[in-house]
Amino acid sequence: MTSIRQVLTTASSTAFHLEQRDVYALGPGQHVSFEAFVAGRAPDVDPDGPFWGGWVKAVEEATGRGVEFRRLRIISEPLSDYIRWEHAITVVNVAAGEQVRWLPRRSCVDLAVVPVDFWVVDGASVLFGHFSGNGESTGHELRTEPDIAQLVSSAFEAAWERATPHELYIPA
């Protein structure tokens, strides 16, 4: 199975990610950070800690090669606890070199959006993420057809232009 980290090692210019779920299943290290946040304590924002599992280093390595990272989250408002937590820990993504924006669903009614989470790498490869109803990953699908890459890239760009940068988005 292809993972995003494998795909990112080949990125030379861009890596764009669209997330559209209001909750994702939590991995073993994520439970502690999420539960602390829900209990009113600070979540884990140590970029070198085990929670981040090397993600920060992977992003820093890619941005060091000149790869532009953009992450767009289409979200429901009011926010789920999971998305409020994601917003709180996004400072680490931004510090690692990602540009992150937030787009409420109510602002998407006139946009054509691909209804699956995905990464677009260098405008040519698309890694779709598939999930069950409760947010468990059911696998990834790598597609390299130019028409698919163009379709998802266009959808991403239209939504990106409308979205609010992380530093300006105030959770509802």
At CATH level 3, the topology is: Endonuclease, Chain A
Provide the CATH superfamily.
Answer: Endonuclease Chain A
**Average pLDDT for all residues:** 94
Radius of gyration: 15 Å
- Total of domains: 1
Q: Looking across the biggest beta sheet, what order are the strands in?
A: 6-5-4-1-2-3-7
Structural class: alpha/beta
**Main sheet overview:** 7 strands, mixed
Per DSSP, the total helix count is 5
Notable characteristics:
single chain, 172 residues, alpha/beta, Endonuclease, Chain A, seven-stranded mixed beta sheet, 5 helices, 34% helix, globular
Question: Could you give the topology of this structure?
Answer:
Blueprint: H1 4-8, E1 14-19, H2 28-38, H3 55-64, E2 68-75, H4 81-96, E3 98-104, E4 117-121, E5 125-131, E6 137-143, H5 146-162, E7 164-165
Parallel strand pairs: 1-2, 2-3
Antiparallel strand pairs: 1-4, 3-7, 4-5, 5-6
